[in-house]
Every structure is written in C-alpha cells, then in structure tokens.
Amino acid sequence: MALSQPALQGILSSATSVLYLECIMVTHSSLATPLMLVNDNVDLVRTEGTFIAFPFTVRPPVQSSDQAATIEIKADMVDQRLITVIRTLGGKRERAQITYEVVTKGTPNVVEWGPLEFTFESCSSNGYTEMTIVASFSLGLLNDAFPSRLFAPNNKGAIV
Questions:
Q1: How many CB atoms sit inside 10 A of residue 11's CB?
Q2: Rg of the Cα trace of the chain?
Q3: Which end of the chain has less neighbouring CB within 10 Å, N or C?
Q4: What one-character-per-residue DSSP string does the chain give?
Q5: Could you report the per-residue pLDDT of 86-120, keeping only the tens digit for each?
Q6: Average pLDDT, whole number, for the chain?
C-alpha cells in the first residue's frame, strides 16, 4: 500500500509535525454500534464516525509460517464503555471482528496503513493492580475448521 505524500514526507524527514494515529473498530452483531477507538487524547472524526480517544497500545502482527498472524491490544481500563463491550461479547459463539488502521491527524480519512481485519480470540485482565485489559485477535484462518460445515457424531447428524 502506497503512503500519501504528506505521510511519506513525515516518515522520511528527520523532524516532522505529522502525527500518526492508530484506529481500531470492533464490530459484532450484539453491538448496536461499532466500538471505535483512536489512540490519542482527543476524539477523531472520520467518515465512519467519531473515534473515541482512548489509551491503548498495539503489538503488530508477526509473520510466521506455522501460526496465524495475531495482534494484541493492551488498553487501560479507564472507561466503563470498554468493560461493557467486553462483557457483551463474552461467551458468544460468534466472534467479534476488529479493523485496525493507521491514519494521520491532518488527513484522518486517508488510511496510511491497513485496514487489517482480525477476529477476536481471547481477552484477559491483569486485575486491579495494573488496571489493563489485553485482547488477542488473529486472522483466524488457521484456527477455523475446514470445511466449515461439518457432519460429525457430536453434532447428532446436524450440519453445522
């Protein structure tokens, strides 16, 4: 994916005023509206809607020949909305989807890197000492059954 001219100049210069922002959007059929977060201290308005300012860090996917690419998001539990979404999605058969993008503050509707689409895998909390949540998302291709519709004794002859 080619970078825009301002983003490329920002990367190649020794000093820059270009601010890169990470945006994540969590979608699921149980959510009335997607959860949209931006790693910044102010909300970001894009064509998709308003991304809520929220402190998080992203461990980017690492390429491996024997594992699906996995992304980890570590977020501070500073907002009740995140906890509400996690509780809503917990225990569901259908897994949440996440879209990860990098944009610049000057041109928030121009995606500089991404979008990367991932599937929710797991979520853990470091308890009340660190007040953080770590969520793992993967491409899911290596973890999904193939074929997806399986006839087996444990499903009593139903096609699932």
A1: 12
A2: 18
A3: N
A4: -PPPHHHHHHHHSSS----EEEEEEEE-TT-SS-EEEESSSS-EEETTEEEEE--EEEE-----SSS--EEEEEEE---HHHHHHHHHHTT-SSPPEEEEEEEESS-TTSEEEEEEEEEEEEEEE-HHHH-EEEEEEE--TTTS-SSSS---GGGTT---
A5: 777 777 777 888 898 999 999 999 999 888 888 87
A6: 76
pLDDT over 90 (residue 58): no
Residue with tokens 């809520």: 52
As a residue count, the chain comes to 160
Distance CA 5, CA 120 (A): 34
Cα angle: 47, vertex 120, 158; to 5 degrees:
115
Count the alpha carbons within 13 Å of 27 in the hemisphere toward its beta carbon.
8
- How far apart are alpha carbons 41 and 23 in whole angstroms? 13
* Prior bond of 147 cis (ω within 30°): yes
Q: Is the peptide bond prior to 60 cis by the omega test (within 30 degrees of 0)?
A: no
C-alpha to C-alpha distance for 92 and 90, rounded to whole angstroms? 6
